[in-house]
Design goal:
By secondary structure, this protein is an alpha+beta fold. It is built from seven helices and eight strands. A six-stranded mixed beta sheet has the order 3-4-8-5-6-7, with helices on both faces. It has a two-stranded antiparallel ribbon with strand order 1-2. Helix 1 (5-22) crosses helix 2 (51-64) and helix 4 packs across helix 7.
Length: 211
């Protein structure tokens, strides 16, 4: 499966929408099929969704689009470490593949810019692309549609956005240091703005290698 840059964005949006729709309780007339009711002190608690469910639904949609898929590990580390884990995983593939993972990473904010952990992760991915000379399509998305104090769910990282940044002579390291990922992606048309989804099960990471 090979897709053009705009098709990659549309595919990512479809995967994300499918995963979020899967978690919508209104789809079920009774308990969701993935629920595991527990009772404590007479109160029944039913889980209607989890990050695992969202990732599995996203993988299902990627398979339906014709991709060979693999699940990334659940990541709760800091953003820079998580970026390296994801990069090393996708760099090990020489074939077309779609990797999907989830989790919620931490971000130590030291700058005074605007952004969120998902946008920072996408920017970290750009730094690794530049360093190692390997490019692919990546998206990091907050499942509630709100990444940090911004109107974006996350951001894309792909060769076309990287080329735009180079043409504008934008210094990725400066944006990373200042935690100003939102400004970077706003200027390169790389923001993922889905609107609020009505659910919140951490984040989803989608990587597409078209080699």
């Amino acid at each position: 499966q090979t897709c053009l840059p705009e098709e990659h964005k549309n595919l990512t949006l479809n995967i994300f929408k499918y995963a979020m729709n899967f978690l919508n309780p209104s789809r079920y007339t009774s308990s969701p099929p993935f629920s595991n009711p527990t009772t404590l002190n007479g109160i029944k608690t039913i889980g209607i969704g989890s990050n695992k469910n969202a990732v599995e639904a996203a993988i299902s949609e990627a398979k339906a689009a014709g991709f060979t898929t693999k699940r990334l590990p659940t990541l709760t580390c800091d953003v820079s470490t998580g970026a390296k884990i994801i990069f090393d995983e996708i760099a090990s593939y020489n074939n077309s593949v779609c990797l999907v993972g989830g989790g919620e990473m931490s971000l130590n904010v030291t700058g005074n810019g605007v952004g969120g952990r998902n946008q920072q992760l996408a920017l970290e991915m750009f730094r690794l692309m530049q360093k190692h000379g390997k490019t692919f399509h990546f998206a990091s998305l907050a499942t509630d549609g709100n990444d940090g104090p911004t109107d974006a769910a996350g951001a894309f990282a792909n060769p076309e956005i990287l080329a735009t940044a180079k043409a504008k002579e934008m210094d990725i390291d400066n944006y990373l240091t200042n935690n100003d990922s939102y400004t970077f992606f706003m200027q390169t048309n790389g923001l993922f703005q889905s609107g609020m989804t009505g659910t919140n099960v951490c984040d989803i990471y989608i990587v597409i290698n078209n080699t």
